[in-house]
Every structure is written in C-alpha cells, then in structure tokens.
Amino acid sequence: MPHMPKSFRFLFSGLMALLCLAVLAGPAPAGSADRFGTVRDNGVWWLTLPGGPRFFSMGVNTVNGGDKNTRDRGYYFEKYYPDQAAWAADTQKRLYAWGFNTRGGWSDPTTAMALPLVPEIDLGRNARLHWFDPFAPDALELTIAKARELTAPYRDNPAVIGYFTDNEVGWWNAPLFKWYLGNEWAIYAKRHVWRMVYDHYHGKWDKLLADFVPTAGFDSFEDLKKGGAELKLRPGGRGIALINKVTAACAGRYYELVHKALRAVDPGRLVMGDRLPLYYNQDAVLASRGFLDVLSTNYNVDTPDGWVAPYYFDGLAKLTDTPVLISEFFFAANENRSSNVNNGHLMHVQTQAERAAGASAAVRHFAAFPNVAAVHWFQYYDEPTGGRGDGEDFNMGLVDIHNAPYEALLAAMAPANREAPAIHAASAGRTTPPQPAVVPIHPAATPTSLTDGGLADWPDKAGTRLPWLRTAAPHVPFGDVHMSWSQDGLNLFHLAQNYADLFLLAYEGEFPISETYQLQIEVDAGAGIRRFAACLLPQPHRKYPGRFELVPRLFRIEDDGRLTRIDETGLVQVLDKPLPHIALEMRLPAKELGLDKLSPGQGLSLRVSATTFYREMTMTLGAPAQGRGKKDADKPFAAILADK
Questions:
Q1: How far apart are CA 187 and CA 574, in angstroms?
Q2: For the domain with range 59-119+154-164+272-425, which CATH number is right: 3.20.20.80, 3.30.200.20, 3.60.21.10, 3.40.50.720?
Q3: pTM of this prediction?
Q4: Where are the alpha helices (DSSP H) in 327-485?
Q5: What is the arithmetic mean of pLDDT over 442-459?
Q6: pLDDT digits over 26-49, tens only?
Q7: CA–CA separation, 367 vs 425, rounded Å?
Q8: Crossing angle, helix 352-367 and helix 407-425, to 10 degrees?
Q9: pLDDT above 90 covers what percent of the chain?
Q10: Looking at the domain that runs over 438-641, which CATH code has it been given?
Q11: CA distances for 361 relative to 305, 343, 365, 409, angstroms
C-alpha cells in the first residue's frame, strides 16, 4: 500500500469493513480516489465511497458521548468508558454489528472512528440567511466567510461525506412572506419581495385587493414600502400563488448562496441540503435544483406498522434530480428503560416489540425507493429522563441512558439494515403501473373502525392504494388515497401534507369552508351520481395552546353545488397529527350511494380529488388520459368491486 496519512489509513481500513454493506455489482462509477460521491445506476441512486464503490448509507444521528450537563439523568460516555478512545472503539464496533455504516448529524467527528460522517453546520443560520437579508449585495461574501469558518474543523477529515447546510429550515411559505414584507425599506429582501408583489399585479391595486386584505393604513403599493406592511389572504382569492412565488425566490437564493459558498471553501464535499422537517414545500424543492448534490429530509413514519406513504418520495423523484438522504427517522415506545414519556406527535407505540417491528419495516420500505440513497436513524441514545433542553422527551435511542442496547429493536433492525442495499438495488425499474381501464377496489381485509384513532385496520396498504393521482405541472401529488369496500359501504383513507398558516386568512367567525382542506368523492354505484366532500375545519386545539386541530365536516354536494351537512359521527375521523400532516379516514355508507348493500363484481363510476388549504393545489384521480391534449383525467373512472 502506498504511503498515506495516518488518518486516511484508518479511514481506509474502516472502509474495507464497510464494503460488506456496500453493493459492488455493476460497473464502478468514475469518481475521486479520496472523496465521496453519488451515482445513478439503472435508475437507482447511490452514494459512492472514495475510489468509486457505491454504498447505501445506513446512518445514526448523535453518535457522540452525550451531554455532561445532563449526565445525572441521561447518557454520558464517562460513566461507561475510561476514555474517548475506548468509547469510540466500542461504539463503532456496535454500529457495524447492527448494520449501520455512517455517522449522521451531530455526531462526534473524531478520527478514532472510521465511519463516514455528515456534519450539520448550520450555515444558513450562522450566515443569517433565512430571517435577515439574503438578497443583500454582500450576502455571498458573508456566506463564504462563514462557510470557511464552519467547515474548518472538517476539511482535513477524510471521513466527511459532505455537509448538511442547516436543520429543518422548513420553507414555511406564509411566515417568510409576512416577515420580509413587514421589514423596513432598507432591507434588500423587503425591496425584492415588494417588487414581486408589484409585478405580480402589474401595478394594479384593485387586482391585489381581489386576493388580499391589507392592514389598515396600507392603501397603495407605495404604502407597502413602509415597515409593518401586512397582507392577509382574502377568502375566495388566489393570493397563495404569490406567496408561493416569494417562497421559491427566498429558497432559491438560499440554496444558491450555500452551494456557492461550500464549493468555494471545500469543493470536493457533497452539498447535502437542509434536512427538511418531516415535510417539503414543492416550490422550495424546485428552487433547489442545480444547487444540491443530495436532498436531505427528516421523516415521521406514517403508521405504527412502518408504512411509508409512497407519494412523499415519488414526489421528490419528480421534483428534483438528486438522491435523497433521510436525515432522521425514529420509533419510540412508551415501554422503555429511560422513563421517556414520548410527549408529542412523533412516532411512538406502546411496546418495544411494536417498536422493533415498525422500525425494521420502515427501513425496508425506505430502501425500496430508487431515489433514497441513505436512511439515518435518530438517535444513538435515548433523550434524558425528563426531556432535553427544549422539553422533547422521547425513547429514540438504540441504547438507553444507561448505555444498554434495546435488544429487540436491534435484533429486528440489524437484518433489515443489511438487506437494505439489496432491496435498493432491486428497486430498479420501480414505476407506477398504468391506470387500468377498470380499477379494482379490493375488499376490506378487516372491519374498519372510524373511532380507533389509527389505521391498524388497513393491513394491505399496498393493495388498497390508488396511485394515479394527478396535479398540474410543475407540482406533483401531495398525498395518497387508499380505498376498499365492504357490504355496508366504501372505505377510504388519505395521507397527505399541507403546511398552512391558519392566521394568514382574513375572516371572522368560523373558518370559511371554501378555504378548508377538502377531499371530494363522486360515486355512481348504479343508483345515480352522488357527490361528497370531507372538509377539514381548523379550530384551536383542545389540549395544546397555540396549536390547531382539524375537525371533519362531511357534506353531500347537491346538483346545484350547495353543501348539505351529513352527520359524520362514525363516518369520518381525522388522526391527531399537527399540520403539515393530513390523515383522514372515512366511510361512505351504501345507503348514501342509494343502495342497500355493496356486492362483489359491482361496477362503479368514481372520481376523487383533494384540495389543500386556501385552494393552493388540487390533485385528481379521474379517467386515464386517452391521447395528447385530452382532458379525460377530469372525468370519472370505471371501477369494480373485486372479490379478493
């Protein structure tokens, strides 16, 4: 072996161990001898090790020694190891044994470990990009200077794959719009946003007023130049389209600045995104194109059985031409050894057995997406008893606060981790099958409950999914719809994402139905067309001050468009997931369809659509298009009630 630096020799020996988790089949892609990279092979994205071999990154966040300040109630390495070297050697040995091969965010960069590393450097936050002035003339110069400072501890570390530029930026559209428009004229971002507002309405104030309600005292475009300017959405208007344009502009500027800065100071490392927060704004993702080597996103698994809604990653595959790194996923259990109470909406179940089953299933689901090249678990150890500094108190660890591994979890995850590369390689050619001329609706596998607060009564999620939803380009479907049937009616559940600032709307009294999130279903089961709308009405949360909960309202849509309320008791439930998550389950009784019961072989005519808050986007499942320029997707499609 030719002479190489000691740190690189250690990394090289570690990488040889890593090759047992790497997939070496197929031609080795061109790449740097001492840098990590990416490659797409037969439609499947991979990361690549130095020298070219491709690998599927199974990572763990917070691979570090813990917090000395919480050592009395949390994990801390000095309680279990004589020194950091002993901690590093044992922890790396454990992670390899459990099928992990990467250190994720907030991990110790020690060269005593060979595991590849992705540091999170908070470049945007430290360079003051998001809530300050990213359009200032010196923004790039300042971002480069800050990038040089933040990457200094890592530039000579050959284990570094690349950098997470921030954590959970979010690209929440309305807060950005409100913040920048309300700034003083001296702020360049304010001027940029003002110009976008002016140009969007071609300088016509009356056109703006059709979409927005200005704050009192702001009666012209000139007034909007003043500090404190605010525009609220007018019910029935289309102001959300302008707000999304502003979001795209701000996100595009951010991604451009961090990309150029990192290329300037550490050009061989991958730019790995800002760890989107369990949700993505489609306009922001579109604006990131060309500025990311890897798009990173955190993910809250959809259901306790480990199901991962395909729309999320299928959508990213269409919006951006990069591999995706799942920068956080997790499962917690109320049964744990750290006395964690799991005080929030993040995925948690009752027992460690359920945790093990769900987490291992999720790994296999993630690996089956061709664009997902990495899956990182949050986190190495449980959060301290009583919670971390921000109050979050979850059993997310592979080990407890006493450094004892969760045996059942790891016994299930280790084989799933090792199978992940092969599952990923087999995802080549994974596409949505063409919509058949007659869509089969499968019978419910178990009786469905509309009061259980979950989706455990949908064991066959792959078989019940209707994957042919469409929306207007350049956007992609923002959710999934599943359907089954039983004698007493049609069953349906809907998982989706929709960030909405519910304080953005100008209204009094009850939230306007026209601005709610809506799922509409049109059915003809042989007794004539019936149309229904499930509308999700936001109202202050009963348990959590400052949060909203979504309350369902079920309506019959009359022929003249009027809405007639149907008692939704036992027919609709909304799972308690805070926005931006939507989880709706419902049943349309046979009697509402004009029938006594449903039977196998029965034909249906169906149309399904979902519309986000403020009518931002609509996706529709209709008849498959018959030719170029056809509008057939707006028409009902034929379905049949299958007998199995």
A1: 42
A2: 3.20.20.80
A3: 0.94
A4: 352-367, 407-425, 461-464
A5: 94
A6: 333 334 678 999 999 999 999 999
A7: 9
A8: 10
A9: 88
A10: 2.60.40.1190
A11: 7, 24, 6, 11
